[in-house]
Design brief:
Elements: E1 2-5, E2 9-13, E3 16-21, E4 25-29, E5 87-91, E6 94-99, H1 104-119, H2 124-130, H3 132-142, H4 162-165, H5 168-184, H6 200-216, H7 221-236, H8 246-261, H9 268-274, H10 281-294, H11 304-314, H12 319-331, H13 344-360, H14 366-372, H15 376-392, H16 400-404
Antiparallel strand pairs: 1-4, 2-3, 3-6, 4-5
Helix pairs in contact: 6-7, 6-8, 7-8, 8-10, 11-12, 11-13, 12-13, 13-15
Pfam families: Cyclin_C (PF02984), Cyclin_N (PF00134)
Organism: Cyclopterus lumpus (Lumpsucker)
Domain Cyclin-like: 208-293, 306-388
Length: 425
């Protein structure tokens, strides 16, 4: 049996003792069984992960180019965690109020603490460590009802959440700053001309694969948008990237974006595994260093996803409209032409317009016109291009995004039929 006790704090107030901890007690029994797959948005802690090469697989993951057909799409993360525990009891995030006057043991203990504090210069923390045998019974009693607290999943929302963005006092300043930043972090349209071995079709396959990886590890949508931004900016600032290294570049972009955006990003060996071990850890780390140097460590970039959430906090919409706008915006990540000629704020406005018209037959609200300064005429070209992409999505060779938004989590919005024509055509 393995036992580990993490930091916890006791705070005194009147006749009550408050016990507060972010991770208070963890007991692991047996080390041979398999842990199930993690819940949405709770990435697996580092202690439960093993090196991917140790895993025996019946079939090899397909390499870039046919990834949309690989049989690992529905793979549970439990398959790569053979050494996890059969019983992992974690007690976290609780605050208890325990009345001492009703329990003689704890009343005596509390009196001992008060006398010690009064007669010595010992701090409360030092006293607690010295009297741990008194406090441990209290600890075991109190943690019994907390087991379920750590099992709650974290909502799949961006760190740039609507709760933050909807603060009216700051919304205009946030928007102004994002509009200024998007001009400094834009990829260059036509950058593929600098890479003779890479075609637009290869990039489409790569982004489709990145969507699958984000889904497989239950990462945030913002992580995907950031990774594609990093990918395009890197290729805009370099030349003659080899075809064989394109997936390595995409994997490094995902690795950096996950480190920036996620609370528990996947480990390095997991990113290596997603490439079917085509690249080594050393190669991926080297590419990460090159990536950061090329981008000059400028990793903060406003994305279409961030602008969309800002717009929807200013003028709220129903769940169908929200998810449809996110779906259309994600589809735009697949194509360089024509969408790199638009700024992320314009693409977000176009996705918002197309979604609201599809669901509610309404376009650009006056509140957003006033907030963004974008009249409908400015958004029309982007809306037209997004509409064409939306119409052709069903027949597109890469279907990862469409499959993602078929699920009930996203209200099945990819199954909504696109309007045949737009009102301004």
């Amino acid at each position: 049996m393995f036992f580990s006790c993490y930091f916890f704090f006791l705070v005194c107030h009147g006749d009550h003792l408050y016990l507060s901890s972010s991770t208070c007690l963890k007991m692991n029994f047996s080390t041979n069984a398999r842990c199930g797959s993690h819940t949405s948005k709770e990435n697996i802690p580092a202690s439960s992960k093993i090196d991917a090469p140790q895993v025996q697989r019946a079939k090899q993951r397909k390499v870039l180019g046919v990834l949309s057909e690989n049989d690992q799409r529905g793979r549970s993360l439990s398959q790569v965690r053979e050494k996890d525990t059969v019983e992992n009891i974690t007690f976290c995030g609780f605050l208890f109020n325990f009345p001492f006057t009703e329990h003689s043991y704890f009343n005596l203990m509390w009196q001992t603490v008060q006398v010690s504090l009064a007669n010595t210069k010992t701090s409360f923390q030092e006293l607690f460590l010295g009297h741990s045998l008194f406090f441990l019974p209290l600890l075991f009693i109190l943690v019994g009802s907390c087991q379920d607290a750590s099992m709650q999943s974290v909502a799949d929302t961006s760190l740039m959440s609507e709760e933050v963005l909807c603060v009216s006092e700051y919304a205009e300043d946030i928007h102004l700053h994002m509009r200024e930043s998007e001009m400094r972090t834009r990829p260059k349209p036509g950058y593929l001309e600098r890479h003779p071995e890479i075609t637009n079709g290869m990039r489409v396959i790569l982004v489709d694969w990145m969507v699958e990886v984000v889904q497989e590890y239950k990462l945030r949508s913002e992580t995907l948008h950031l990774a594609v931004n990093y990918l395009d900016r890197f290729l805009s600032c370099t030349e003659y990237v080899k075809r064989a290294k394109l997936q390595l570049v995409g994997t490094a972009a995902l690795l950096i974006a996950a480190k920036y955006e996620e609370i528990f990003p996947p480990e390095l060996n997991e990113f290596v595994y997603t490439t079917d071990n085509t690249y080594t850890k050393k190669q991926l780390v080297r590419m990460e260093h090159v990536f950061l140097r090329v981008l000059a460590f400028k990793m903060v970039a406003p994305t279409t996803n961030q602008f969309l959430r800002l717009f929807m906090s200013i003028h709220s919409v129903c769940a169908y409209t929200e998810n449809l706008a996110l779906y259309v915006a994600e589809l735009s990540l697949l194509e360089i032409d024509p969408f790199l000629q638009y700024t992320p704020s314009i693409v977000a406005a176009g996705a918002y317009c197309l979604a609201t018209y599809t669901v509610n037959k309404f376009l650009w609200p006056d509140s957003l016109h006033a907030f963004t300064g974008y009249p409908t005429a400015t958004i029309v070209p982007c809306v037209t291009d997004l509409h064409k992409l939306y119409m052709s999505a069903e027949n597109h060779p890469q279907q990862a995004i469409r499959e993602k938004y078929k699920t009930s989590k996203y209200c099945g919005v990819s199954l909504i039929t696109a309007p045949a024509v737009l009102p301004f055509l």
